C-alpha cells in the first residue's frame, strides 16, 4: 500500500495512560509509559505490505535459498504451553506448535517463529526491508491519532485477539483458563488467522490488514525512549538500545495491547516465538514504476 | 543485600524491586523464587532450576546464558530480569 509522507506525532497522548488504568485490564499504567511522550517525526513516503508475510511466501524464500531460521538452527522454539512459556524441541515456522503440527496446512496464515535475523534475511531476498516503527504506526493509524486501525471504538470481531477466541477478557486468569483448556483440546497451536480475514472492517487508515493482532510484527527500529527523561519501567529501561521495537500485538493479547501506538520490545539475538512474525516495507514507487510487489 | 528488579508487567502494579542475599546468580534466583512463589512459574522450570529464556543483566551488563552458572552476585549488585518480549 502506498503511504504518503507525513509529519507524525509518534506515540500516545497523556490521556491514553489514564484511560488504560481506568479500563478493566490487568497491566499497570506505568507498563505503557514507553509510548509517551508523543514525539514529532517526519516520515517520507513509502510502501507497506498489506499483509504480514505468510507461511506460503516464507516457504518460497526457504525453498529458493535453503535458509534455516534461528529456531531451526537451535532446535527449539518458544511456545506457551499449559503452564508457561517453554522451549519446545522442534517448534519452528514449519511446525509452529512443535512436532505434529504442520504450517503447510495453512499457507495463508502469517509465518511465526521468526527472529529479527530471519525477518531481515527474508526482506533482503524479497528486495524489501523491515518498516521503521514510525512507518508502522503511520500505516496503522494515519496522521490522526486513533486507538485501533479502524477507529477509537473497539469492534469485536475486527481483529484476531484473545477475545476473538475466548470472549471478553479482563484479567490474566481468564486468559490462562482459556489457553489451558485450548491446549488440552488442540495442543499449543498458534491461533493465527488467514491474512486479510478481517478486511475491510479491520483495515487500517492506509488499507493495511492485520495491524491489530494476529501476529506480533518486528520493525527495523532499535528500542529507545521517545524522550530521555520519559518515565519508564526500570526493568524495561535496561533493554533500550538492546532490543528492537515490535508492533501490533498478537492473537495472544487483549484488545489493549493491539493498539496502533502500543510498543513492545523484542530481543533481536535469535529469539522468536509462536506468535511473532513480520511484514515488509519498501521505498515509495517512482511515478513511472509499475506496482508489481503485491504491497 | 543485592537487589532483584522485575518488569512491572510481571507484578501487575505491585512492587518490582526486592532485596536478596548475595551469592551465585542461580542460587539468588532460586532463593528469590522460593521466597516469592507468585513469580516461580516465570523463573523456574519443573526441575526447580532457573529457566534460560529470560535475559539477565547484572549492574547493566548482560549475563549470557552459558555464563550464568558461574556468575556471582555481590551485595551491592542489581540483578535485572527481562523477558525476550517486553513492554506494553
Describe this structure in words.
By secondary structure, chain A is of the alpha+beta class. Chain A has a single domain (2-283), classed as paralog of FGE (formylglycine-generating enzyme), CATH 3.90.1580.10. Chain A contains eight helices and eleven strands. In chain A, strand 5 (76-80) and strand 6 form a beta hairpin. The longest helix of chain A has 15 residues, at 172-186. The radius of gyration of chain A is 18 Å and the shape is globular. Chain B has 88 residues and is α+β, with helices and mostly antiparallel strands. Chain B has helices at 8-11, 25-35, 40-43; strands at residues 2-5, 17-20, 23-24, 55-58, 61-62, 72-73, 78-82, 85-86. Chain B has a single domain, classed as Beta-grasp domain (Ubiquitin-like (UB roll)). The chains are: A alpha+beta (295), B alpha+beta (88). Chain A binds chain B through residues 26-28, 30-32, 34-35, 78, 83-85, 87, 172, 216, 223, 233-236, 238-239, 242-243, 246, 249, 257, 262-267, 271, 273, 276, and chain B through 5-9, 12-13, 16-17, 41-42, 46, 51-53, 55, 57, 60, 62, 80-88. Chain A: This is Sulphatase-modifying factor protein. Chain A: Residues 33-281 form the Sulfatase-modifying factor enzyme-like domain. Chain A: InterPro entries: CTDL_fold, Sulfatase_Mod_Factor_Kinase, SUMF_dom, SUMF_sf. Chain A: Pfam families: FGE-sulfatase.
Amino acid at each position: 500500500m502506498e503511504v504518503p509522507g507525513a509529519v507524525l506525532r509518534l506515540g500516545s497522548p497523556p490521556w491514553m495512560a489514564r484511560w488504560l488504568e481506568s479500563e478493566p485490564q490487568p497491566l499497570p499504567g506505568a507498563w505503557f509509559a514507553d509510548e509517551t511522550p508523543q514525539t514529532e517525526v517526519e516520515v517520507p513516503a513509502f510502501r507497506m505490505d498489506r499483509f504480514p508475510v505468510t507461511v506460503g511466501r516464507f516457504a518460497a524464500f526457504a525453498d529458493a535459498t535453503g535458509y534455516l531460521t534461528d529456531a531451526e538452527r537451535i532446535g527449539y522454539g518458544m511456545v506457551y504451553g499449559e503452564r508457561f512459556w517453554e522451549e519446545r524441541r522442534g517448534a519452528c515456522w514449519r511446525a509452529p506448535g512443535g512436532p505434529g503440527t504442520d504450517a503447510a496446512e495453512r499457507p495463508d496464515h502469517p509465518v511465526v517463529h521468526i527472529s529479527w535475523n530471519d525477518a531481515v534475511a527474508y526482506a533482503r531476498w524479497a528486495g524489501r526491508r523491515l518498516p521503521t516503527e514510525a512507518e508502522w504506526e503511520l500505516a496503522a493509524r494515519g496522521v490522526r491519532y486513533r486507538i485501533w486501525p479502524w477507529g477509537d471504538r473497539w469492534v469485536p470481531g475486527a481483529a484476531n485477539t484473545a477475545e476473538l477466541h475466548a470472549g471478553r477478557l479482563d484479567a490474566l486468569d481468564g486468559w490462562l483458563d482459556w489457553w489451558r483448556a485450548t491446549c488440552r483440546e488442540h495442543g499449543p497451536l498458534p491461533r493465527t488467522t488467514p491474512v486479510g480475514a478481517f478486511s475491510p472492517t479491520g483495515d487500517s487508515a492506509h488499507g493495511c490488514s492485520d495491524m491489530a493482532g494476529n501476529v506480533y510484527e518486528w520493525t527495523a527500529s532499535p528500542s529507545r525512549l521517545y524522550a530521555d527523561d520519559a518515565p519508564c519501567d526500570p526493568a524495561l529501561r535496561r533493554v533500550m538500545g538492546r532490543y528492537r521495537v515490535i508492533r501490533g500485538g498478537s492473537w495472544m493479547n487483549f484488545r489493549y495491547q493491539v493498539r496502533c501506538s502500543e510498543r513492545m520490545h523484542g530481543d533481536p539475538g535469535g529469539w522468536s516465538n509462536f506468535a511473532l512474525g513480520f511484514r515488509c516495507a519498501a521505498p515509495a514507487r517512482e511515478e513511472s514504476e509499475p506496482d508489481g510487489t503485491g504491497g | 543485600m543485592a537487589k532483584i528488579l522485575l518488569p512491572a508487567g510481571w507484578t501487575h502494579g505491585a512492587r518490582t524491586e526486592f532485596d536478596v542475599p548475595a551469592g551465585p546468580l542461580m542460587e539468588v534466583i532460586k532463593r528469590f523464587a522460593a521466597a516469592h512463589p507468585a513469580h516461580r512459574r516465570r523463573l523456574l522450570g519443573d526441575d526447580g532450576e532457573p529457566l534460560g529464556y529470560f535475559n539477565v543483566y547484572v549492574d547493566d551488563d548482560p549475563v549470557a546464558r552459558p555464563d550464568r552458572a558461574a556468575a556471582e552476585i555481590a551485595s551491592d549488585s542489581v540483578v535485572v530480569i527481562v523477558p525476550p518480549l517486553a513492554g506494553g
